[in-house]
Amino acid sequence: MGYSKGQMEDEITKAMILWEKEYKGRGPTEAKTDIIRNMVIVTLKGVLSQAELVLAQNREGRVLIKKLRQQLVEQGRPEIEEIVSRITLRKVVSLHTDISTKTGERVFIFIMDQEIRPW
């Protein structure tokens, strides 16, 4: 049985929510995945804890949050790359991510080795 584009997007979304919950202890309030050519774009909303929201009220706190979250992603990178590769049947070439300490939104952009086609 193969996945349609929408099914791949749904599977990646579910897997990323689960990863966030298991790896970081809490998941996003909203999540969405879009596949465009050779890119997988995952948007997670509501990823900051209450403590991080308070910390984000000043510059030093925002820098700290971004640094910590970047380090956590780097450590979990092999696992999240495997999730996306397993579902798309493509190899991750690069991963780009950032978090907004203003909106509590995190974006992951996975660049794959070739265009993603439903199978």
TrEMBL record:
<dbReference type="InterPro" id="IPR018745">
    <property type="entry name" value="MpsC"/>
</dbReference>
<protein>
    <recommendedName>
        <fullName>Na+-translocating membrane potential-generating system MpsC domain-containing protein</fullName>
    </recommendedName>
</protein>
<feature type="domain" description="Na+-translocating membrane potential-generating system MpsC">
    <location>
        <begin position="5"/>
        <end position="114"/>
    </location>
</feature>
<dbReference type="Pfam" id="PF10057">
    <property type="entry name" value="MpsC"/>
</dbReference>
